[in-house]
Prior knowledge:
The protein has helices spanning 2-33, 38-70, 79-90. It is mostly helical.
Amino acid sequence: MGFWRGVKRRLxxxxxxCIFLALAGYFVSSAFxxxxxxxAAADRSAMxxxxxxxxxxAEAERVMWERRVSAMRANNLDRxxxxxxxxxxxxxxxxxxxxVLYPPGQKLF
Length: 109
């Protein structure tokens, strides 16, 4: 009986430290792999940088479109831009235009 009593006492003494070690291990692993951990922070940083690049690209495109639209306003109508846009939308060409056809794999745009 003395042997089992000693085993029980050592097991009871080891339970609390094992529980705390398990909790500490959980929090340490969560600090690296968790939803708000260091790896997730690096992923969020990469996503933020990609979003900033997309924003810059979208702002540049918006500025380009604003210039094109301002050329189409009635008080500032650019006849060449209007003619170009109408021909592009209707797929028409002026008989005096020179048309250069590209092979299907070698488009200009």
